[in-house]
Amino acid sequence: MRYPDARTPSSKAGPADAKPVPQVGKRPSPPALLFAIGAIWVAAGIVLVIGVLYLRGGITALARRADHS
Fold first, then answer.
1. Does residue 10 contact residue 4 with C-beta atoms inside 8 Å?
2. Distance (Å, rounded) from C-alpha 53 to C-alpha 59?
3. Report field, pTM of the whole predicted structure over 0.70
4. Distance between CA atoms of 44 and 52, rounded to whole angstroms?
5. CA-based, 20 to 30 A from 51: which of 11, 34, 43, 59?
6. How far apart, in whole angstroms, are the C-alpha atoms of residue 35 and residue 41?
């Protein structure tokens, strides 16, 4: 015995009635946005290094001043 299949001629829905499968999930980010985010991270890293060097210089100046007192 054969079981009814959706592709049999007796089925009412034909290939013309088939709906496209919807996309699941989020689409990939555009490359320009990824480049901009990467550039922001690099800039933030540079600012962080400069800030650490600035603080190190300030702490060194305070330590030298305390030695002379």
1. yes
2. 10
3. no
4. 12
5. 34
6. 10
